[in-house]
Input
Amino acid sequence: MKQILFGDDLLIHHITGEDLTAEDQALIRTGFYELIIDHDQTGWGTLYSRLCLWDVSTPMVFYRSTYYVVQALSDYPDIQRKGLVSIGDFRGSWKSSFLQIIKVIGESKEAVDKLPYHNATLHLIYDDPKVDTFIKGIRAVMSKEHQMRQRFHTGSNMEIEYALKAFGIDPSDSLDINSPTGPMSLSGVEEDIRRREKLDEEWRQSEAPYRDPSSREALFPNPQDIILGRNKKIASSWPGNMAYHALIGTNTNRYTSVDDEDRIAKTSIAIEILDIIHREYNARFLVRKDTIWEVMDDIEARKKVSQALRNFTREIRVYAS
Output
């Protein structure tokens, strides 16, 4: 998702406000999506969305802005563990049509289902009976897990307020459901953006040591790096892995032409390939360890290259037979 929205160059670090376009930042300033901390009485955070402010005329702007807001959850691990309360507010005059928004939600369904947080409950509030049809459309494109956690609240502002209180959500705390701009005033949104800017700077400083080319650890892999792990689907489509496999493929015939007993010659080929990876591709072999990536030492990396050459050789022999 990050690669599609921001490109290869920004894969190597935490996305900050500086990585957003002017259009992205303008959309965030409308308060269309807001992450509210320490709001719910149970200690859960709240992700509030004012759907009437959704502007999906430029989907990539909408997706990037949403990504940036939700990414802020990484600063609050307690909220991720406890779960997040989501509130979708359907009231107000809409910038985009129902059909446009259903289309965007449908296209992003897979990404939403894989967002790295536990969605405790989803509360949908509305005051227009016509919205019923729209909500049924949204439910149709959501996973069963999300459908089971949905709660619907309609009626007057007072009725909605009491309904939310029954679930431990006190609108009088920091969620002003009567506000035309959502739970935060526009000045509140600006204040939240300034808070995010401070956290962004903390991220930049914390990432600086990992960006040193000599560092043996990395927070994010570079596009040219070769990532190793159990998730073969991601690894197989990673740019560095694809270039690495292409390099192995071009050297397989040379490897197979060497006598199997001549281990020195075969090892020399693996060392040559490893040198190309380091010197020409400026790539590293990375292994996931807890919350970081560790650079594999050259001995282990050379073994990986030799193993890849043997695997390609076996595939060629099986195909030939």
Remarks:
- The mean pLDDT is 81.
- The beta strands are 33-36, 45-50, 84-89, 119-126, 150-154, 217-218, 226-228, 285-289, 292-295.
- The chain has 14 helices and nine strands.
